[in-house]
Predict the 3D structure of the following.
Amino acid sequence: MESKHGMTMFFSHPLVQMDEASILLPKPIFLRWFSVSSHFLFLLVLSIVWVCKRFRNGGLEHAKERLKNNNFSYYKATLFSCFGLSLFYLLVWIVTFFGCMYCLSDEKLVSHLDLILRILTWFATSAYLQLEFSYSSDKKFPIIMRVWWTFYFILSSACLVFDLVYYKKPRILPNHFWVLDFVPIVITPFLCFTGFFGMRNEKETLFLQEPLLNGSNVEGGKKNLSTFSNANLISLFTFSWMGPLFKVGNKKTLDLDDVPQLAKEDSVNGIFSVLRNKLETSTTSSNGVGTLKLVKALFFSVWKEILWTALLAILCTVSSYVGPYLIDTFVQYLNGRREYANEGYVLVSIFFVAKIVESLSQRHWMFKLQQVGIRTRAALVAMIYKKGLSLSSRSRQAHTTGEIINFMSVDAERVGNFSWYMHNLWLVPIEVTLALLILYKNVGVASVAALVATIAIGLANFPLGKLQENFQDEMMKSKDIRMKATSEILRNMRILKLQGWEMKFLSRVIELRKNETHWLKRYLYTSAMTSFVFWCTPTFVSVVTFGSCILLGIPLESGKILSALATFRILQDAIYILPDTISMVVQTKVSLDRIGSFLCLEDLQPDLVEKLPGGSEVAVEISNGNFSWDHSFENHTLTDLNFRVYHGMRVAICGTVGCGKSSLLSCILGEVPKICGTTKLRGTKAYVAQSPWIQSGTIEDNILFGKEMDRDKYERVLEACSLKKDLEILSFGDQTIIGERGINMSGGQKQRIQIARALYQDADIYLFDDPFSAVDAHTGTHLFKECLLGLLGSKTVIYVTHQVEFLPSADLILVMKDGRITQAGKYDDILKSGTDFMTLVGAHKQALSAIGSVVSDSQILTNLSLSDIVEHEQNGKTDEIMGQKGQIVQEEEREKGRVELSVYWKYITSSYRGAFVPFILLSYIFFQLLQIASNYWMAWAAPVSKDVTPPVKGSVLILVYAAFSLGSSICVLVRSSLTATAGYKTATLLFNKMHMSIFRAPMSFFDSTPSGRILNRASTDQSAVDLEIPYLIASFAYVIIQLLGTIAVMSQVAWQVFIMFIPVVAASIWYQQYYIPTARELARLVGVCKAPNIQHFAESLSGSTTIRSFNQEQRFIDTNLHLIDGYSRPKFHSAGAMEWLSLRLNMLSSITFAFSLVFLISVPEGLIDRGIAGIAVTYGLNLNMLQGWVIWALCNIENKIISVERIFQYTLIPSEPPLVIENKRPDSKWPSLGEVHIRDLQVRYAPHMPLVLKGLTCTFPGGMKTGIVGRTGSGKSTLIQALFRIVDPTGGQILVDGIDISTIGLHDLRSKLSIIPQDPVMFEGTVRTNLDPLEEYKDEQIWEALDRCQLGEIVRRKEGKLDSAVTENGENWSMGQRQLVCLARVILKRSKILMLDEATASVDTATDNLIQITLRQQFSDSTVITIAHRITSVLDSDMVLLLDNGFIVEHDTPSRLLENKYSSFAKLVAEYTVRSTSRFGS
């Protein structure tokens, strides 16, 4: 009788005996009837209210107009609670009904009726909240709800009290009333709280209504909505909010515009402000941001989500152990032992419900973890970016752009990915504890042996973990160095190709990679050992446990063994994750340490510049100022600065190369660390750098720079900066997209855009760092007159210049030497008071006298006024280099549709032609077979009960099992080692292939490809190939083998079970096919959306001084936040897509498992082997996990293999012509004469662009000097590039000493030519490596070259001499000094043909004169081709070539051209002379 009615005790009402002493209280049946009546009455009232509201509000028409209630506080939690109560009562009713369906009394009928009405009531409440209230405009929850929730709390409390008083003899479940009445007691107080305190946020409602009221684009609004934040409870529960995106993804290739916006909580705007506030509150200025503080701040930024995922993790873990706990009972049931009626169905129901709970909790757990990861990564990237904008100069020198990009692209990403493993460290001990409890139930004290074995293996792993951490740390340091070098090389690829150094620098990158892979190899093999240890742990623990049972004499029964094996299998999955978890903890700690140390770096001193009051006449004042870029140097950069600039003054700064002119401007900007003194400033400032900083984007965006468009002012600025003519030529006008670093603009155009940007800001103080050197004489004159003397006539202007002719117009001239102001005053005053200024002016006059010696008829100069020249030149044209029909920078190419199988095949066969793949697969297959065999052996050899004689002895049982276990362990070791070896080799091959392809790519590739795209592949994608993809593919292979093994074991019980797999597999395939198109494109979008992030990051870091000078930090931070969200959107929805699929497949596998169990309990006894049936149940418990793992692995491979696909893309870049053609190699002495003959040369930069050089024919005689002149952008630099074959001709030929240069190898050509480029380049390293990267020259030769270009003394003063450090981009050298280093390079090389492309633009006239003398001496018998804006640099040439709009206008000796006063060259000379002898504004 006990067993017959035992299950009825789950329901706690009148089904047990009452305490006779409680006779005075109402009878329980009365309370049940009262509950039934109350629920029925509430249902009736709610129905009437709902119907009345529908009629009153216009039914369906009302539904179209009403507003979704997503901004009602506690709304979702309330809805979830009501729906949860409904589900809870449904589960209780199902279990109760099965327990007493054949023995229903009146009291039990009332109890069932009570439960049914509870289910209906709470379901109706949920439906009302979702379908009616959520669209209403009520400010609070309806009064009927608030009354009902309060009443229900009282009713539940009464039921609990009556249970406690009446029922003192429970039979099966001693605490049954805690289940039924305690749950409402917990939930209803929360409902009462929300009923009284939940209310609508009025402001947000109005904001949501506004677009509709204003008639804005409804379609666009829909696109911008977050489907996640707008989803109802059911949709959230089942991930159905992903449905609309799947529909779009299956109709078309997804674009970023198709991906819904993020919810407010997931957007970086929300999480970044929270993290920043947490860090600021926990950080003091004295100790900065440490790793521990960073971790705490990150935790408290997302603590709610972390706790929620922790609860889901516990729920998932507990429900996963329900199966192993009940297996022994189930096997005993199959063996014929029955404890109560319908026990089999009850067990099946519990198995099924546990699986459903496990699936739901696991899917939401996984999704929430990824949500936390996305938020964490976004917040960290935002923090790193903000820090990068505020770093001091010393900190910037310590960390290059490449390193900082690594913090963002690798370290922040890794910290975000850690969310997957966040709970594993504390969850595994809980799982071990649960497993030990189940083991104790089955094998008694032998479970202690299992505990000891588990602890021993855990302790043994600590040394391996420590090794991994060390190797990871070293690997990341090596990666930083490599990325830094790669970033610098990409920035300066043009000069590398011009010098023929690209292969040398490629070998340098390969060497850096070898150092990185040295640590990578150690890390991978250590990981393989860790993996081996942990994969063997469950097998080892099971052998120890069963062996202990034999030694202790504990009987081993098949049911208990199967329960233990099921426990080991689940424990095995938890322990399998531990190697990855430990590896991830190690990697994350290293990354957090690196990010923490970066955030601790010194910022710019906030008190460097003091603000003067608004009414002050003083604009800039420096008193007793001593400044130094590096405090460790004894010699300060600037000393004894004392000057004052009043509002409206023009101040000129002049001096020789390296005297501190640019540093003085940096002091005013607050960039140079202060030793002592004060710097004061009044008003806003605008800054024009010596090296133009141009953003990727349109010309208009670069000029407006965040300001609103004022068309009149915009037009005035364009006119003043001579940009209108340039814009007229362009197909897209000012909407033309400028490439990275302004690659598709000439130097003059970039400088004029920079000046226009400053003018448009309408600042109070303007700082110009020698912007006129990059433009020709006419343009420079126009800029000075129209900008400095015109638009800025009433502003405070401080300008650095090497043009002496611009000095007389200054109200104050500061002459600098060796970091000091040696003279200060007006032009005429200081001309008489010292020698430094006299030296500069004297050099200028000496240069002008050169013109007089060439020009025989001075009337040419005097008869032409400056106005005549300017008027004549208004009809001139600029170069059509930018006149392309399409934008130069195109959207990043991404593959469409399914990843080709060839990508997988090429990847797995890259190393050793795929020879290791069969062995890896075989090791997996043998491992699985040995595992199944060991389980079969234990099920067969162990008796059904202790009364049955076992077929073999206990020692034989354990020895055979141990042999199987040893075999599977060997398989694991083989698999781990081979996977590590193959993965390492493949990663190395792909890296080398990609980098060879990139370094051999033509310059057009680098011109049209932002470096962020290349760096993304070299960093993030390469990291995935190094550390993730081999293991993902191996994991996928293993889980497929394991799934097939499970299906085989389950099907062996009876073939009918296999039939169930057919529709389930078909449904799974359909779901997967529906899922893959969307998921694949989301993964590709993640890859594509990362490059703009990196590019913007790199640009912002290189232009941080300009950004700060315009006070634009916040705008750039906002842009960065927008780009971060652009990356997070596809990543977030990719996570949602994966869980959408996994949930549905889990449900299918749960149904399959339930069907299998029902089949097992339905077949007659003796028809199937009960031991095999038990094994089937054991394996079936893992079906959910295996199917989820298959999908997870497949989706991760699909997502990550895109990294391989993107690397393969860059291994197929069209290459430049061969570096060496063996049968066409010129003689070693070539060129002996240096004669250059050009025949009908036509050049265009791309097939879709117009011709830049249009049929040039001329000869540069050997051993003679030729000067090339022309307006800014007339094709001068293009001709130089054609000579170096940076651009191959569209038509025509270039012959050097009779050899067509297109027929010989590029290195044979470029190694014989020398160039000093327009933009001087220095690489990070030493002075020696910058002058002689190929290590071809002796120190004596290097010193001689340095002395000849006026750098010898400067280098000798440095501590390391030739080995003194050069920072990134040569930032610790002035622009002029960098140009002199380029001169030293060509002096060392002593080529027969030398080209100078604006080689002296950044040096003063005196230094220019010295350089010209040096060149005449060193290259007296060489062919020298000079492009210069300073006419004096070409006047002593033997020949002059004048270009205009890609045509040769004039080509003759300077004297002959000057004889014709109407020649274009004569006009240029006259213009330069008039400008040079003018005193603008004086």
